Each structure stands twice: as structure tokens, then as C-alpha cells.
């Protein structure tokens, strides 16, 4: 797969996707969104990938927003279509992947960049990172799920303030509010996410995928998260991973999960 705007590395069971538009501070344009979708879909289907990391190139930015030059002259209809397509192609797609996706926020995560990070299953930030949704300063609102996911992660009041003021918060502030799980020196970011990825990979890929679905169900309109949990819990009993996990426990050995 030939890609202009992203780089992919594969180490053990971890794939690292680096958004590589340093001249634009890794801003998301339509081409990059499509490349990310295609790459993530391919990785989701790869049994040798059990954890995916998304980060940005360089030390300044994770993703410093969407590429405003692409849509500055859009009509109302075109703007709505842009948001819908982007949500379906990338942001909702990431959130609902069965393979864990971790955002390694290595600098500015603004606008669409923060929305991408929030669509990941959780976030690790370097201590120089700054995050915000500045869209109202441009006369628009977050359109890639930002109004929804930010409130889910930090609460309605904090989300309202961040969106209304269009301001940035530091990595430490993001950690205090639950927006990111960990803050580490930038030099330690790679080692930190690889350590966490290694812990994830010791567990059943099938069970992790079903857990992601169950947790997400609580935030979907018209879906009973408890019922999804019950269904997915039962389905685990029919998997080879469940047989291996319980057998290994009883035999007092480490499980060797195959993701089946």
C-alpha cells in the first residue's frame, strides 16, 4: 500500500502509524483521513497486529488540526457532508475497532487532531503536549465527534468551557481531567506505549475486542450496555481463547492466546 502522508512500522504485535506531514504540523486533510482508514482497516484484519499506536512526526505536533484550506469555502451542505464522511471513515471507525488503538500525543493536538486522539481507546501524552478544540474561534464547531467525545471524557462543564473559550490545556491539565491516561517526558513516550502495548498483548485479543464493544455500547443511543456485556460475556465461552485462558489458569501457567 503506497501512502503519501503516513508511515507504518510493525514491531512484535504492535503497529505504529505516524502521521507524516511535518510541514503542515501533521494537519489532517481528506487524503490523510482516507490513508488512515485504509491502513487501519488492513491492520484490523492482520492477526499479527494486536495493538495499534497513532502518533505524529517530529516533536511539535501530534496533529495540529484539520487542513482548513480544504474547506474554507465550503457551503452548508458541503460542510455537513465533510463531517459525516470524516466521522464514518475515520473517527467512528477507530472508536469501534476491535484492535486496541492508543493515541501517543507527542505535541499539539488541536481540533481534528484532538478529535482523532479522543476516538482512540485511550491516550498517552508527552509532557510538552497541548490540547484544545479551537473551532469556535473560526466560526464553526468541532465536526469530527469532538462535542460528543470530549463531554464523555471530561464531563459536560469542562467540555463546554474548552469549546466556548477555544483555549488549549496542558498535558498535566488533560491528565487531571481524565482526557489522557498518562503523561511522560517526550523521550519516554515510545518506551511507555510499548510497555503498555506489551501488557495488552498478554491478554486475549478476542476478549479485548468484545470488551471494547461492551464499553462503547454504554455511550450509544438506544443501546443497552448491560445487555451487550451479557451477550459478549456469553460469546467468550465459545472461543478457543477462553478455553486456553481457563486451562492455563488451572494449570498455573501463562496463557498463549491465538485470538480465536
Written description of the protein model:
With 260 residues, the chain is α/β, with parallel strands linked by helices. It has two domains: 195 residues, 2-enoyl-CoA Hydratase, Chain A, domain 1, CATH 3.90.226.10; 47 residues. Helix content is 45%, strand content 17%. It is built from ten helices and ten strands. The strands form two sheets. A six-stranded mixed beta sheet has the order 1-2-3-5-7-10, sandwiched between helices. Strands 4-6-8-9 form a four-stranded mixed beta sheet. Helix 1 packs parallel to helix 2 and helix 4 crosses helix 5. The longest helix is centred in the first third of the chain and has 20 residues. The chain is globular. The two termini are 27 Å apart. The mean pLDDT is 95.
Structural class: alpha/beta
Secondary structure: number of strands? 10
Reading off the top of the CATH hierarchy, the class of the largest domain is best stated as Alpha Beta
Helix-strand pattern? EEHEEHEEHEEHHEHEHHHH
Give the neighbour order of strands across the main sheet.
Answer: 1-2-3-5-7-10
Uncertain segments of ≥5 residues (pLDDT<50)? none
Tally of distinct domains: 2
Number of helices: 10
Architecture of the largest domain, CATH level 2?
Answer: Alpha-Beta Complex
What would the CATH topology of the largest domain be? 2-enoyl-CoA Hydratase, Chain A, domain 1
Major sheet details: 6 strands, mixed
CATH superfamily of the largest domain: 2-enoyl-CoA Hydratase, Chain A, domain 1
Proportion in β-strands: 15-25%
Shape: globular
Q: Give the C-alpha Rg.
A: 19 Å
End-to-end distance: 27 Å
What percent of the residues sit in helical stretches (DSSP H or I)?
40-55%
Query: Would you tell me the overall average pLDDT?
Result: 95
Amino acid at each position: 500500500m503506497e501512502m503519501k502522508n503516513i508511515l507504518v512500522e510493525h514491531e512484535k504485535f504492535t503497529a505504529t502509524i505516524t502521521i507524516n506531514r511535518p510541514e503542515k504540523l501533521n494537519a489532517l486533510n481528506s487524503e490523510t483521513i482516507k490513508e488512515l482508514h485504509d491502513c487501519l482497516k488492513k491492520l484490523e484484519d492482520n492477526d499479527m497486529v494486536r495493538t495499534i499506536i497513532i502518533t505524529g512526526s517530529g516533536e511539535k505536533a501530534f496533529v495540529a488540526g484539520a487542513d482548513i484550506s480544504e474547506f474554507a469555502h465550503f457551503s452548508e451542505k458541503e460542510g455537513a457532508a465533510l463531517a459525516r464522511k470524516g466521522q464514518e471513515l475515520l473517527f467512528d471507525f477507530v472508536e469501534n475497532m476491535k484492535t486496541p488503538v492508543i493515541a501517543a500525543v507527542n505535541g499539539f493536538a488541536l481540533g481534528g487532531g484532538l478529535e482523532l486522539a479522543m476516538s482512540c481507546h485511550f491516550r498517552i501524552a508527552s509532557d510538552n503536549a497541548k490540547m484544545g478544540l479551537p473551532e469556535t474561534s473560526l466560526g464553526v464547531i468541532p465536526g469530527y465527534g469532538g462535542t460528543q467525545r470530549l463531554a464523555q471524557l471530561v464531563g459536560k462543564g469542562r467540555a463546554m468551557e474548552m469549546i466556548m473559550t477555544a483555549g488549549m490545556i496542558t498535558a498535566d491539565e488533560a491528565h487531571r481531567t481524565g482526557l489522557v491516561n498518562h503523561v511522560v517526558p517526550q523521550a519516554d513516550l515510545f518506551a511507555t506505549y510499548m510497555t503498555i502495548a506489551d501488557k495488552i498483548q498478554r491478554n486475549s485479543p478476542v476478549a479485548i475486542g468484545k470488551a471494547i464493544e461492551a464499553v462503547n455500547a454504554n455511550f450509544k443511543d438506544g443501546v443497552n450496555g448491560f445487555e451487550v456485556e451479557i451477550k459478549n460475556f456469553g460469546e467468550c465461552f465459545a472461543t478457543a481463547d477462553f478455553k486456553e485462558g481457563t486451562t492455563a489458569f488451572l494449570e498455573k501457567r501463562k496463557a498463549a492466546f491465538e485470538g480465536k
